[in-house]
Design a protein that fits this description.
Order of helices and strands: EEEEEEEEEEE
Radius of gyration: 13 Å
Shape: globular
Number of strands: 11
């Protein structure tokens, strides 16, 4: 089992930045791809970004590409999501997720562990 705890959410004005962190604990001795998803009220959970185990591959949703950056520090069992140029439509709960595989996925059902989420609110 792997436990994921997100932090770093909050309220920010449009154009601002936030950095989300996700700390993993438990069976971190295995290789996991990591990802971030988000869910706004009344909407389905959507893919944001993913990173492979060795950081060799990253993928982003079109809506965040060029503004968000996913990274990880395997020595610290932590994954990050740097969010710049935030827009009101980025407002959502952001979830960290882990997949028992070397590479990530765009699909929520292919991930094995989820955090509780952290709220990001962008005001206009």
């Amino acid at each position: 089992q792997v436990q994921l705890v997100e932090s770093g959410g909050g309220l920010v004005q449009a154009g601002g930045s936030l950095r989300l962190s996700c700390a993993a604990s438990g069976r971190t001795d295995r290789s996991y791809a990591m990802g971030w998803f988000r869910q706004a009220p009344g909407k389905e959970r959507e893919f944001v970004a993913t990173i492979s185990w060795n950081c060799g591959s990253t993928y982003y949703a079109a809506s965040v590409k060029g503004r968000f950056t996913i990274s990880r520090d395997n020595a610290k069992n932590t994954v990050y999501l740097q969010m710049n140029s935030l827009k009101p439509e980025d407002t959502a709960s952001y979830y960290c997720t882990a997949r028992r595989a070397l590479s990530g996925s765009y699909y929520a059902q292919e991930y094995d562990y989820w955090g509780q989420g952290t709220q990001v609110t962008v005001s206009s």
